[in-house]
Design goal:
The chain is of the alpha/beta class. The protein folds into 2 domains: 129 residues, Rossmann fold (3-Layer(aba) Sandwich), CATH 3.40.50; 68 residues, Winged helix-like DNA-binding domain superfamily/Winged helix DNA-binding domain (Arc Repressor Mutant, subunit A), CATH 1.10.10.10. Helix content is 52%, strand content 13%. Strands 2-1-3-4-5-6 form a 6-stranded parallel sheet, sandwiched between helices. Helix 1 links the parallel strand 1 and strand 2. It comes from Cellulomonas triticagri. Keywords: DNA-binding, Phosphoprotein, Transcription, Transcription regulation. InterPro entries: CheY-like_superfamily, NreC/VraR/RcsB-like_REC, Sig_transdc_resp-reg_C-effctor, Sig_transdc_resp-reg_receiver, Tscrpt_reg_LuxR_C, WalR-like. GO terms for molecular function: DNA binding.
Length: 223
């Protein structure tokens, strides 16, 4: 069972997300929060598997909450999925840099939101497809290196881990990567589990951002 905390300052949105997610047989909504401080307190008391977090809330905003729940200095991070009506780049960058595992616009289809929650809970992460190339291109252009630099990353990754990272950056699932490399899915998962700590990242999404950010792979041109 995936235990989810929903944090949004709009009652209708909280009720809608709670109803949508709670209707799924494998998801349980363990609490709802109307502001950032409440979100942090409930996350600590309920220990959810995923926090669905709005960006703009009274008091502490979503980026600040994400940083406290899953930032690089957090010993026991809680996976965060940011859901927002705003696709402004600074919000996307802020959420990813704060450690969020996913970023999705609220006008996404219900099935996409449910799928995103499952992906974040499983450690896969997700990013709204409408934002992906724009966000990754900007991350690459900014050249803000992750804690592990390209040179060190290249030194510590095995050839197989690098292959998996390149396929991961293409948006492939574990199953698709396994098929491409002719290995078992469990083997892919084992490589990912060993690779991410080497790069100083905590999710598949952050690993993909690292790959583009450090020019391991290039962002496709819009054309």
């Amino acid at each position: 069972m995936i235990r989810v905390l929903v944090a949004d300052d709009q009652p209708l949105v909280r009720a809608g997300l709670s109803g949508l997610l709670g209707a799924e047989p494998d998801i349980e909504v363990v609490g709802t929060a109307a502001d950032g401080d409440e979100a942090v307190a409930l996350a600590r008391s309920t220990a959810p598997d995923v926090v669905c977090l709005d960006i703009r809330m009274p008091g502490r905003d979503g980026i600040s909450v994400a940083r406290e729940l899953c930032g690089p200095d957090v010993a026991d991070p809680v996976p965060v999925l940011v859901l927002t009506t705003f696709d402004l780049d600074d919000y996307v960058f802020g959420a990813l840099e704060a450690g969020a595992s996913g970023f999705l616009l609220k006008d996404a289809e219900p099935d996409e939101i449910v799928r995103a929650v499952r992906q974040v809970a499983s450690g896969r992460g997700t990013l709204d497809q409408a934002l992906t190339h724009r966000v990754l291109r900007e991350f690459a252009d900014r050249r803000r290196l992750q804690p592990v630099t390209l040179r060190r990353g290249a030194d510590v990754l095995t050839a197989r881990e690098r292959d998996i990272l390149l396929l991961l950056a293409q948006g492939m699932s574990n199953e698709e990567i396994a098929a491409a490399l002719v290995v078992e899915v469990a083997t892919v998962k084992s490589h990912l589990a060993r690779m991410m700590p080497k790069l100083g990242v905590r999710s598949r999404l952050q690993a993909v951002v690292w790959a583009y950010q450090n020019r391991v792979v290039e962002v496709p041109d819009p054309d």
